[in-house]
Amino acid sequence: MSENMYLTAEGAEELRRELQNLVNVRRPELARKLTEAVAQGDLKENADYHDAKEQQAFVEGRIKYLEHVLSKATIINGATTTPGVIGLGSEVVIVEEGTDEEEIYTIVGAAEANPELGKISHVSPIGSALLGRKKGDKVSVKTPAGEIIFKIKRVN
Q1: Which of 1, 44, 119, 156 pairs as cysteine with 91 (C-beta 3.0–4.6 A)?
Q2: 97 Rama sector, left if φ>0, alpha if ψ -120 to 50, beta otherwise
Q3: Are 71 and 89 found together in one domain?
């Protein structure tokens, strides 16, 4: 059974741009590098050849992955639940109990999660704990560092 894949419209566009770059820029670039490396002769000890083959394998794997995600994904426009209730696409402001520091996250599908950009997956510990909750709720999240309690300050 395969997991449902969700993407925001913005996330789908980012993945399409990455796919286009890999297909139209990186793939031909690596093909040229391989051709040049093969022309150098003896492939056994040719570092350029081995490096290009390794990069090519990564690029082809990433292309397959992106094509799969984009073909199977459900595109979400805005939050997927009633207003004020956290769902896919919701932007959430939370504060860890005992601190005043606000953290802002957008709940997205796993394929576009990027915690450094504030995009957390709906299946991550924090993301899944927030789903279905609303402003004012306290949420307990089990993390590798222990249990953390967050208060939901705002839901957009």
Answers
A1: 156
A2: beta
A3: no
Residue 63 pLDDT > 90, yes or no? yes
Task: With respect to residue 122, please indicate whether it lies within any of the assigned structural domains.
Answer: yes
Residues 11, 53 within the same domain: yes
Q: How many structural domains is the chain composed of? A: 2
pLDDT tens track for 32-56: 999 988 888 777 778 888 899 999 9
Pairing of strands 146-155, 74-76: unpaired
Specify the 3-state DSSP secondary structure of 73.
coil
pTM of the model: 0.70
For the chain, the distance separating the N- and C-terminal CA atoms, rounded to the nearest angstrom, is 32
Q: How many other C-beta atoms are found inside a 10 Å radius of the C-beta of residue 60?
A: 14
Span 1-40, pLDDT tens digits: 346 788 888 889 999 999 999 999 999 999 999 998 888 8
Q: Are residues 39 and 100 in the same domain?
A: no
